[in-house]
Amino acid sequence: MFSFKNLSKVLVASAFALSLAACGDGEAEDAGEELDEMVTDAGNAVEDACEDVKEGVDAEDKDC
To answer: What are the helix (H) ranges across the chain?
Structure first.
């Protein structure tokens, strides 16, 4: 069963591979750093949304 978190990981990995393929040698490191920041921000946003939903339904386990 696919979860949103697993789907996000697959999409991020695909975006990373495509971005590196599109970059020249000098730009690959900058693209990688930018992608790392985007992945971190997206992961934080997903986790925050999950915690908000669990808090909204008053779940016992609020950790995502």
So the answer is: 4-22, 28-56
